[in-house]
Amino acid sequence: MSSTLKYTSLEEIAFAHELVHKTFKAGTTRPLEWRKQQLRQLARMLRENEDAIVAALQADMKKPALETISFEINPMAERSFASAEMLDQWAQPERVEDVPDWQKSWAPTIHKAPKGPALIIAPWNFPVHLLFEPLIGALAAGCTAVIKPSEVAPHNAALMAELVPKYLDHSAVRVVNGSVPETTRLLELKWAHIFYTGNSKVARIVSAAAAKHLTPMTLELGGKSPVVIDGAHTDIALAAKRILWGKMNNAGQVCVAPDYILVDRAHQDAFVASLEEAYRDFYPDGALGKVSYADIVSQSHYDRLLKLLKETHAKKAFGGKVDGHRGIEPTVFTNVAADDALLEGEIFGPLLPVVPYDTLQDAVDFINERPNPLSLYVFTDDQDVKQTFVDNTLSGGLIFNDTFTQLYVGNLPFSGVGESGNGSQHMKYTFDTFVHNRASIDIPPEAEAILGARYPALAAASA
After folding, report:
1. Contact 424/137 with Cβ under 8 angstroms?
2. Which residue, among 449, 442, 424, has the nearest Cα to 434 in the 3D structure?
3. Which of 54, 65, 312, 408 has the lowest CB atom count within 10 Å?
4. CATH for 225-408, options being 3.40.309.10, 3.30.505.50, 3.40.50.2000, 3.20.20.70
5. Which strand ranges, in their side-by-side order, compose the sheet holding 217-220?
6. Cβ-based neighbour number of residue 176 at 10 Å
7. Is 122 helix (H, G, I), strand (E, B) or coil?
8. Residue 322: exposed, middle, or buried by beta-carbon count in 10 A (0-12, 13-18, 19+)?
């Protein structure tokens, strides 16, 4: 499979932009049956091309087939089909009943109006899931879209450019491939909504571009998602297994991957020993070279992680092997200091620093002194401890006693907060992202009995 990716020319970008605006203005996307058909076609595309998608992601980052099927293809096919099934309910105008009696005859209603042509910019780490999750909502809402896969996963980007026009209305959904110049051109154009998934540095560029047109945005970003271990009230071995599994998915190249561990000092050694035991259970001969363990996506990302391995002053507990072919095995560090290089930015790789704390308040303070994370994981069976984190921390999501599985729950909003993003997605929450809640009232003639007093002549006569 060739890694050559044909970039979209600036002329083609202009054409795509004009076409999706023209299609939206023509009303093509408004009928619910059209939207349902497109959603079912998207599900069909994913199901019928499973092997090709698996091969593309293998070529891009050696992503295991099971990960591609379980976390990319299956959830997007299922949510696309389910969105079609739920669309009648979602799109139904909402009659507002909670109004004063004298306004009830005005038929106060909220109409679910599509915002219009959307720009969707996807990242490379889950290039199918994070491209189509927002597109599902855009199609369900009745929007057109230009979708931009990541050039860092070139095989997948090329495949999407090939498949999407075969299955979806090519006048309503267009694929643009490219890198910085092409993305810059897309951001110069006017859109009804921009949905960007990636890092906070690029998000600032996207936000500045969107501000020129007052374009609303959804930003799904990353950040350092912490894990807190309440060693006195949790099964240490089970916690270690679940945390390591969450860290090893896509070799840690996941926005919700556990980024660092806060564990009470008395249980740090036991926890690290359990992590190593879990690793040996998963991979008796080590993870490198195994078909179920991914590579780092590119040489630049690989070099960045190797630099972290050199810069950290923390003690390595186990792991750390590299293979020279962008493979890095899971690596755990203990007694990591707050100012260590491993705690400066999002790791986005299979390195796992463990930070000991003395009191639960120390752990809370450590989290609150840093930007709001996308996910916060807390391992404890103590309800008071759980409530402490509910009441005293802020994160996009709060997950107790597991990692990563929040992505499975499609009927809960998935969102960031602050540095980790804004806006929500998943099923109806993605639909809501791309609709405008259009308020409507209809004033009947008999309302004059109340409204008549507002007219100047009558008001003067009654003065």
Report:
1. no
2. 424
3. 408
4. 3.40.309.10
5. 173-175, 145-148, 118-121, 193-197, 217-220, 421-422
6. 23
7. coil
8. middle
Which alpha helices (H) appear in 98-231, and where do they start and end? 129-141, 154-167, 180-188, 200-212
Amino acid (1-letter code) at residue 150: S
Sign of CA dihedral 454, 455, 458, 459: positive
Going residue by residue through the chain (463 aa), what tens digit of pLDDT does each one get?
A: 545 799 999 999 999 999 999 999 999 999 999 999 999 999 999 999 999 999 999 999 999 999 999 999 999 999 999 999 999 999 999 999 999 999 999 999 999 999 999 999 999 999 999 999 999 999 999 999 999 999 999 999 999 999 999 999 999 999 999 999 999 999 999 999 999 999 999 999 999 999 999 999 999 998 899 999 999 999 999 999 999 999 999 999 999 999 999 999 999 999 999 999 999 999 999 999 999 999 999 999 999 999 999 999 999 999 999 998 899 999 999 999 999 999 999 999 999 999 999 999 999 999 999 999 999 999 999 999 999 999 999 999 999 999 999 988 989 999 999 999 999 999 999 999 999 999 999 999 999 999 988 898 755 555 5
Determine which helix (DSSP H) or strand (DSSP E) holds 25, and give its type and residue range.
helix 10-25
Q: What is the DSSP string of 262-277?
A: EEEGGGHHHHHHHHHH
Active-site residues: which are they?
220, 255
**CATH class of the domain at 10-221+416-440:** alpha beta
Stretch (H or E) spanning 19: helix 10-25
What CA–CA distance (Å, rounded) separates 229 from 27?
A: 53
Residue 43: CA atoms inside 13 Å, Cβ hemisphere, count?
18
**441-to-96, 105, 109 alpha-carbon distances in Å:** 10, 9, 6
Domain ranges of the chain: 10-221+416-440, 225-408
Residue 190: CB atoms within 10 Å: 14
Report the alpha-carbon distance of residue 338 to residue 363 in Å, rounded: 12
- Angle, nearest 10°, between helix axes 360-368 and 383-392? 30
Burial class (CB in 10 A: 0-12, 13-18, 19+), 242: buried
Which ranges in 198-314 belong to alpha helices (H)?
200-212, 236-248, 268-282, 299-311
